[in-house]
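for the recovery benchmark. tokens below, seq after
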């Protein structure tokens, strides 16, 4: 951050009452004398802790309310409607994530309603691959939502950092998301925003599906006046058309686009604008050179084509069908040279995720026993 940006940040902290004008003037004089930045001097003088400064900077000077009995540990992420911070309960020692609706949205009835709706939905749901909600409510004039803390990174962050996923690793991740989707289906819920940014991967390579802000009941739209919701790079053709009767097959399409990005390292459709990309989702066939180059195996090609079929009647009709096919693929039941040892190794994989080899990053691939497979007919 530049010196000018630092001054602007600390000016906003004065305006919001986080720091006094005299405090900032004193820190500025000391920082200039010491030849360090204003934030560095604030930390040296004990005026701001590094974690709190990180949060204030991410919020553009907006203060997160102090939650009694909790210590703020750092920033988890920031979206268009809220910030999520990492905190620890002093009494239990449990780590939690605290989601705080942005200050400028507190007066919006629509934003507040959506925030509470997502929180209550996650509090009701209970599945190993869906982040768990704990409690929600107003505090010091702000809406806050406490939920399970997931120590990991989103798939999108991993992709942006250069992480590569081979087919076995990608399928194991997709399998866990499909299991979460199967549970949501049993609860009558459609996620409507399945994408790498909403899929967290822990250090133990366990998946957590997050952000149900667009979730709705199966077969229903999101409300009067709403047309298209979701993220255009991943939405199904029916979502792009603004159809109200979206169901789990729309989520399966989005999961297919996610699988494509994991193994190909790029999006299935590109566009100069959201409108172009939405048109591609509706009109263009999946004819990427990546699929034709031989980089992707015939089995993976089949999964992607079936999950991303334009006509939802051709896709997997339920996550259970997708789960069965992935498990069959992992176990290698279509192998021409299948052995009891292969079966035991594959069953072990389905029961227990692959382990870390060297912290802090998880391994790029799971130790799956190589299996010779024949083409799906």
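predicted aa per position
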């Amino acid at each position: 951050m530049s010196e000018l940006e630092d001054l602007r940040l600390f000016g906003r902290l004065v305006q919001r009452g986080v720091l006094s004008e005299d405090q900032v003037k004193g820190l500025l004089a000391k920082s200039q004398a010491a030849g360090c930045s204003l934030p560095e001097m604030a930390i040296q003088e004990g005026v701001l802790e590094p974690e709190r400064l990180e949060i204030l900077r991410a919020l553009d000077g907006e203060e997160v309310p102090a939650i009694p009995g909790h210590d703020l540990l750092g920033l988890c992420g920031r979206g268009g409607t809220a910030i999520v911070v990492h905190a620890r309960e002093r009494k239990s020692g449990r780590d939690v994530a605290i989601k705080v609706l942005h200050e400028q949205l507190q007066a919006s009835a629509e934003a507040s309603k959506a925030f509470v709706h997502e929180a209550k939905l996650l509090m009701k749901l209970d599945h190993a691959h869906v982040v768990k909600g704990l409690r929600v409510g107003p505090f010091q004039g702000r809406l806050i939502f406490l939920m399970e803390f997931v120590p990991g990174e989103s798939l999108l962050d991993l992709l942006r950092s250069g992480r590569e996923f081979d087919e076995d690793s990608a399928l194991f991740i997709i399998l866990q998301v499909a299991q979460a989707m199967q549970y949501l289906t049993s609860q009558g819920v459609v996620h409507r925003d399945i994408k790498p940014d909403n899929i967290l991967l822990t250090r133990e390579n366990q998946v957590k599906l997050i952000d149900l802000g667009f979730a709705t009941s199966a077969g229903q739209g999101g409300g009067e006046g709403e047309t298209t919701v979701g993220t255009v790079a991943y939405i199904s053709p029916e979502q792009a058309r603004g159809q109200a009767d979206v169901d789990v097959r729309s989520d399966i399409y989005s999961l297919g686009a996610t699988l494509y990005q994991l193994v190909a390292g790029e999006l299935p459709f590109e566009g100069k604008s959201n409108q172009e990309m939405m048109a591609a989702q509706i009109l263009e066939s999946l004819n990427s050179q990546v699929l034709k180059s031989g980089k992707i195996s015939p089995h993976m090609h089949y999964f992607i084509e079936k999950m991303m079929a334009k006509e939802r009647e051709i896709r997997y009709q339920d996550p259970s069908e997708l789960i069965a096919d992935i498990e069959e693929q992992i176990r290698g039941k279509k192998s021409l040279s299948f052995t009891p040892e292969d079966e035991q190794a594959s069953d072990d994989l389905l029961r227990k995720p692959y382990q870390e080899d060297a912290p802090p990053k998880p391994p790029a691939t799971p130790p799956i026993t190589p299996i010779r497979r024949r083409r799906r007919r």
